Amino acid sequence: MKHEILSVDVAIVGAGPAGLSAARAAARSGASVAIVDDSPRAGGQIWRHGPGVAAPPAAAARFDVLRQPNVRHLAATRIVAEASPCTLLLEDDERGLLLEYRTLILCCGARELLLPFPGWTLPGVTGAGGLQALIKHGLDVRGQRTVIAGSGPLLLASAATARERGAQVLHVLEQAARADVIGFGVRLWRWPSKLAQAARLMTPVYRPDAYVVEAFGGQRLEGVRIRQAGREFDVECDRLACGFGLVPNTALPSHLGCRIEHGAVAVDAHQRTSREGHFAAGECTGVGGSELAMVEGEIAGCAATGQTSRLAGLIARRARWQAFADAVRDRFAIREPVRKLARLDTLVCRCEDVRYDALVNEAGWTAAKLQSRCGMGACQGRVCGAAAQALFGWTPPAPRPPLVPARVGTLVLDGGDDA
Q1: Cα dist. 389→115, 158, 263 in Å?
Q2: What is the helix (H) or strand (E) element at residue 296, kind and residue range?
Q3: Does the global pTM surpass 0.90?
Q4: CA 286 to CA 300: how far, in whole Å?
Q5: Are residues 134 and 238 in the same domain?
Q6: Total number of domains constituting the chain
Q7: Residue 174: domain span
Q8: 175, CA 20 to 30 Å: which among 25, 334, 395, 406?
């Protein structure tokens, strides 16, 4: 099996807003940089671009770093494990690879939080961000009656994408109370770009204090039951996109021994983690949006390469966007009734068909896995793990290598065999 050893000054995991910003800052110093990302195209989830979808200006400016001679982009490449200190074992579709680095910047991003409710596994039901990603990759939604539900600013963005591609968006349902939504809105003057964005995305079908109680249908989704301000009613629809915000991706940082606090990678003022020579930036350190991710990435890239004169201004900018992230977190926190929509027969782990009643009396994540195989299917707990944490308060254990399925030839590299 073909393989190689690549040595760089700075390795960056993730090619989203944080990773590209970190790469641009680090490359400015003349350091050799490698960006590892499991997607075939840079941009992360928020800058995902496909047929007929152009990258926004902020993304296009950062994509330029990929053309610099001291930057190497390892696209469609998965991180299998830490082979040895400051060496990652990687794999793409053709080969295994050992990546040696002096400094590592973790920009692992986040994934969508999906909370189980009756009917959530029906065909036609996706996450809010999931629907947006599918549309950007060419999913035809023209004329489809669509309900967007869940919590947070992503709902309006998803609705706008669906509407632009011809979907009939019937409702945008925000579970947060009306007072919280209004309170958030009146504070947006502090972030003019966000105020303008909200005004552009707002739609007459936006409904606060509303959420989907149940999705129903035979072979696929046919309709949903909505609870709004204490009353319930049914709506026929073809698609439901339901997401409750984002969850930081901490599997790799945890595997590397970085401290995790409150579900995110703990960092200091310069984005340093608890492990020497390892930095983290973006959504894996706490969900905050692309603006916060970009400035955190730039701080990490500068700090990792000794560009300390730039840090003071960047830290002030980060504080401004951290305040926005805090406002989103406080005003759009998931309310207790939404966490309790699952019935005893509702699937929690869809990979292994594990129902709520098989988990509710378990002491924790490890016991649940042993008794029910929850989290042992294709997604390896990436969906049901976050759901179980929201439902039961379970803290998932640190992942064990390999972090992803890998070929035997790649795993041999981890043992130092040159075969």
Answers
A1: 10, 25, 10
A2: helix 290-304
A3: yes
A4: 15
A5: yes
A6: 3
A7: 116-243
A8: 395
